């Protein structure tokens, strides 16, 4: 990695942009926020932009003949352009949704919605004998919509397994290999860029190329990569990518679906109503071209504008530098955990093709109890199955404790967490 | 930290009356979907109406120290008591756990359950502490036991 990590001075400036990081919790303990994988903290600059939009510009976008409406539309469409630039796509390929879950559902429903009355594109025609391929490491958001799609259409859901180390079992060590799973029957292959539990970075280019070779549409869950790794959909070769504003220093209530233009054009609408129409008669309606076709109703304009500002900030920090910084933190955390024989890391033990989502199991102590002991010392982590229950079952654990790192975390915070963790065997009297 | 009282740790390490036994009138399976904690619980009740007695509570629990210990306390406090007494204990336990720290619990009613008073200050853990108790009352209903008879004690 050629980019450098952040200096202490840079890190202090970054942290100053996130006021919540200087608050205390649990009787005056400094907050150590290691739960950005669930939701990141909000960049104050993005909050300022969101508030300024609401105070000075707010009005209905894409309608109205007044100046405010023009300015609001410009701001909203400006945010779309930023999101497009962020993923390396075209403006009209960016659809604003309420979150990544909605983005993924939007794509899943395109395969089974016939309400549009337009000729069905063969790529979106799904039925018995067809297959949907996902992976065993998916977040429920990229799992349940495909299960439901299979149920609605009669298609079969299949999945690529996970190795003991926590990588996709592409070679078929424990089950069928990718080559056996990905066939001409596969109509869609949906997979995550980065596992929200294991931290594993999947070989997206290779997976997408293999899917393309059999004519399957590819859907990338980019939630856990967007704030950590540079994202270029053209280079990756996927057809769709979904991510959420609140995981990348932006507001809740706004997500993005990027889709290849010609596929979006072939898709029926998902949610219908105002703003997404071309002409409406009592008998029937025709629909606007994408992205408007997929943005029914009044949009979350202030949130989209806030997300645009968060994207600017990520660009300003530089995703290559963020990745370098987080890589160093991840190595520090993994090394610290490896020194504790009573901890089992669930996911790759080396910081190779992995990011700073680090899940682990403390021998003989339930994750809830581990999280509680950390919380008591000001360290915020997530416990449970992190919306990836099948993956936990596969890894042989009911629940894990998960620390997730972000650009604003410091080496000292990693050390505080490791020290706090040492209280766990003390309290629960297990071998340390 | 005051959450992990010695009694709780003790019960979680060596849960009382654990394991699934026969006979039983009903078996239920409850989960805490946020963390995947699970409990399978059986009840065996003899008699009816005000004389109904909980003869056995047997269970298989997979969960955190709070949920495991709470189920252990449940079994220990309730086995051998009338259904009416059990419901009084359940109500006292529920009331303490949901009091946000206001109700310290009455040892005469809930016994070792008082060790869980600290849990009520941690809203995310209240569900853990109630998992076994909710399973127990559900099992009584599944077994067709009348839980409305008044405690005569």
Automatic annotation (TrEMBL), chain A:
<dbReference type="InterPro" id="IPR015421">
    <property type="entry name" value="PyrdxlP-dep_Trfase_major"/>
</dbReference>
<dbReference type="InterPro" id="IPR015424">
    <property type="entry name" value="PyrdxlP-dep_Trfase"/>
</dbReference>
<keyword id="KW-0663">Pyridoxal phosphate</keyword>
<dbReference type="InterPro" id="IPR000192">
    <property type="entry name" value="Aminotrans_V_dom"/>
</dbReference>
<dbReference type="InterPro" id="IPR015422">
    <property type="entry name" value="PyrdxlP-dep_Trfase_small"/>
</dbReference>
<protein>
    <recommendedName>
        <fullName>Cysteine desulfurase</fullName>
        <ecNumber>2.8.1.7</ecNumber>
    </recommendedName>
</protein>
<comment type="function">
    <text>Catalyzes the removal of elemental sulfur and selenium atoms from L-cysteine, L-cystine, L-selenocysteine, and L-selenocystine to produce L-alanine.</text>
</comment>
<dbReference type="GO" id="GO:0031071">
    <property type="term" value="F:cysteine desulfurase activity"/>
</dbReference>
<keyword id="KW-0808">Transferase</keyword>
<comment type="similarity">
    <text>Belongs to the class-V pyridoxal-phosphate-dependent aminotransferase family. Csd subfamily.</text>
</comment>
<dbReference type="InterPro" id="IPR020578">
    <property type="entry name" value="Aminotrans_V_PyrdxlP_BS"/>
</dbReference>
<dbReference type="GO" id="GO:0030170">
    <property type="term" value="F:pyridoxal phosphate binding"/>
</dbReference>
<dbReference type="Pfam" id="PF00266">
    <property type="entry name" value="Aminotran_5"/>
</dbReference>
<dbReference type="InterPro" id="IPR010970">
    <property type="entry name" value="Cys_dSase_SufS"/>
</dbReference>
<dbReference type="GO" id="GO:0006534">
    <property type="term" value="P:cysteine metabolic process"/>
</dbReference>
<feature type="domain" description="Aminotransferase class V">
    <location>
        <begin position="32"/>
        <end position="416"/>
    </location>
</feature>
Automatic annotation (TrEMBL), chain B:
<dbReference type="GO" id="GO:0051536">
    <property type="term" value="F:iron-sulfur cluster binding"/>
</dbReference>
<dbReference type="GO" id="GO:0016226">
    <property type="term" value="P:iron-sulfur cluster assembly"/>
</dbReference>
<dbReference type="GO" id="GO:0005506">
    <property type="term" value="F:iron ion binding"/>
</dbReference>
<dbReference type="InterPro" id="IPR002871">
    <property type="entry name" value="NIF_FeS_clus_asmbl_NifU_N"/>
</dbReference>
<dbReference type="Pfam" id="PF01592">
    <property type="entry name" value="NifU_N"/>
</dbReference>
<feature type="domain" description="NIF system FeS cluster assembly NifU N-terminal">
    <location>
        <begin position="4"/>
        <end position="128"/>
    </location>
</feature>
<protein>
    <submittedName>
        <fullName>SUF system NifU family Fe-S cluster assembly protein</fullName>
    </submittedName>
</protein>
């Amino acid at each position: 990695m050629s980019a450098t990590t952040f200096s202490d001075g840079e890190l202090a400036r970054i942290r100053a942009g996130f006021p919540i990081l200087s608050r205390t919790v649990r009787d005056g303990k400094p907050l150590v926020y290691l739960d950005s994988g669930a939701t990141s903290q909000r960049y104050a600059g993005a909050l300022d932009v969101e508030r300024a939009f609401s105070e000075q510009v707010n009005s209905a976008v894409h309608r109205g003949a007044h100046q405010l409406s023009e300015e609001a539309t410009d701001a909203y469409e400006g945010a779309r352009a930023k999101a497009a630039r962020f993923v390396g796509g075209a403006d009209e390929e960016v659809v604003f949704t309420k979150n990544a879950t909605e983005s993924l559902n939007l794509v899943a429903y395109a395969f089974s919605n016939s309400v549009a009355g337009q000729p069905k594109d063969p790529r979106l025609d799904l039925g018995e004998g067809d297959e949907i391929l996902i992976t065993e490491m998916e977040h429920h958001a990229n799992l349940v919509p495909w299960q439901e799609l299979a149920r609605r259409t009669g298609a079969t859901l299949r999945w690529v397994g996970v190795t003991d180390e926590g990588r996709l079992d592409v070679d078929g060590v424990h089950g069928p290999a990718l080559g056996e799973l990905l066939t001409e029957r596969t109509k869609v292959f949906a997979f995550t860029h980065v596992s929200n539990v294991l931290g594993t970075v999947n070989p997206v280019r290779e997976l997408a190329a293999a899917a393309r070779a059999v004519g399957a549409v590819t859907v990338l869950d980019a939630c856990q990569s967007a704030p950590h790794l540079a994202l270029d959909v053209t280079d990756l070769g996927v057809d769709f990518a979904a991510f959420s504003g609140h995981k990348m220093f932006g507001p809740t209530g706004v997500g993005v679906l990027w889709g290849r233009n010609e596929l979006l054009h072939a898709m029926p609408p998902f949610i219908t109503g105002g703003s997404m129409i071309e002409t409406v008669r009592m008998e029937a309606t025709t629909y606007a071209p994408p992205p408007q076709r997929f943005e029914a109703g009044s949009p979350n304009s202030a949130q989209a504008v806030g997300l645009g500002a968060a994207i600017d900030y990520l660009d300003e920090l530089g995703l290559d530098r963020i990745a370098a910084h987080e890589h160093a933190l991840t190595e520090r955390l993994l090394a610290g955990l490896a020194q504790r024989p009573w901890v089992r890391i669930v996911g790759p033990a080396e910081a190779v093709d992995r990011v700073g989502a680090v899940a682990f199991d403390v021998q003989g102590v339930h994750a809830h109890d581990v999280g509680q002991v950390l919380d008591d010392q000001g360290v915020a982590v997530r416990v449970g199955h992190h919306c990836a229950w099948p993956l936990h079952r596969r890894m042989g654990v009911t629940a894990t404790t998960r620390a997730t790192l972000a650009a604003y975390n410091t080496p000292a915070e990693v050390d505080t967490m490791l020290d706090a963790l040492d209280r766990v065997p003390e309290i629960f009297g297990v071998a340390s | 930290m005051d959450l992990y009282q010695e009694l709780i740790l003790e019960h979680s390490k060596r849960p009382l009356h654990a394991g699934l036994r026969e006979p039983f009138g009903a078996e239920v399976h409850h989960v805490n979907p946020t963390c995947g904690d699970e409990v399978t619980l059986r009840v065996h009740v003899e008699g009816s109406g005000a004389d109904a007695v909980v003869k056995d509570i047997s269970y298989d629990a997979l969960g955190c120290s709070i949920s495991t210990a709470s189920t252990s306390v449940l079994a220990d406090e309730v086995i051998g008591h009338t259904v009416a007494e059990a419901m009084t204990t359940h109500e006292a336990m529920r009331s303490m756990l949901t009091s946000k720290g206001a109700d310290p619990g009455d040892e005469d009613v809930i016994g070792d359950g008082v060790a869980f008073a600290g849990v009520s200050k941690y809203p995310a853990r209240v569900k853990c502490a109630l998992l076994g108790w909710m399973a127990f009352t559900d099992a009584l209903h599944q077994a067709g036991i009348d839980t409305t008879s008044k405690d005569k004690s």
